[in-house]
Amino acid sequence: MTPEPTSPSKVVLLTGGSKGLGLGIAKVLLANGYRVATCSRKRTGFVDDLLAEVGEDRFFWTEGEIGNEASEVAFMDSAVAWAGSDPLYGLINNAAIAGDGVLATFPNVDTMRIMEINLIGAIRLTRLFLRKILNQREGRVINVSSIVGQRGYTGLTVYSATKAGLDGFTRALAREVGRRQITVNSVAPGYMETDISAGLGERQLQQIVNRTPLGRLATTEDVAFLVKFLLSPEASMITAQTITVDGGITM
Questions:
Q1: Residue 2, in any domain of the structure
Q2: Given this model, what pLDDT does residue 198 score?
Q3: Is residue 6 part of a domain?
Q4: pLDDT in tens, 139-185
Q5: DSSP for 18-46?
């Protein structure tokens, strides 16, 4: 993985970067010259492979759970220490969990856990990040939302609420930090070729593909390339937006 000489010293923090979409984002950013620090609940073989490929100077992983305040603080502190003299530049709030079930019988403990990880933890980590970069007058915050935050989905009421909350958080925060030249945007993927969609079954997946104008599921790279663009100087006038990547299925 030979990086392009675009932003060799810019440090991006990414939550949930050990698999799926987070891993895809990490790979694209590393290939384009960024240094990436990530955390996840468990270390995967993908993390080991990426460390072996690009080295510990360019990719940093630590065990950490978004939704646990002490763990969030520890991740921020360790990422700053790893970054050294390179300033923090971007934060991508990607870590999330979903719970399938109708609200009437959905356990309160699961509701609170989804809220803590998907929304509250992202807000707390963003607060820590902003304290590090406000005086730089440059930075990017990207929240990974979902089309279910815009359209809703049966059995995903709490998950949908957290993603809609992230979109609202994006718009309000963009107003707060815009004069500091910090942009804040949401990326809302649709159905993707990930482990989660693989569990839907062949018939359900084919129905989704048939309803999608582009006739396929999104890949993690489709979303990761948008994230890369939003981090770039070319996106410096784009803020407070929720950008959907779903092949047109929600139009």
A1: no
A2: 54
A3: no
A4: 999 999 999 999 988 889 999 999 999 999 999 999 999 999 999 99
A5: SSHHHHHHHHHHHHTT-EEEEEESS--HH
In a domain, 147, yes or no: yes
Task: Indicate which CATH number applies to the domain containing 49.
Answer: 3.40.50.720
**Catalytic option among 34, 89, 159, 191:** 159
Supply the range of the domain harboring residue 48: 11-245
Length of the chain: 251
Q: How many domains does the chain have?
A: 1
Q: Among 2-16, 174-188, 203-217, 223-237, whose mean pLDDT is lowest?
A: 2-16
- Categorize the per-residue pLDDT at 1 as very low, low, confident or very high, splitting at 50, 70 and 90: low
Give CA–CA dist 96/12, Å, rounded: 18
Please check whether residue 3 lies inside any domain of the structure: no
Region class of 226: left (phi > 0), else alpha (psi between -120 and 50), else beta: alpha
Annotated active-site residue 89? The verdict is no
What are 40-46's contacts with CB under 8 Å, separation 24+? Answer: 40/15, 40/16, 40/64, 40/95, 41/65, 42/18, 43/18, 44/18, 44/19, 46/18, 46/19
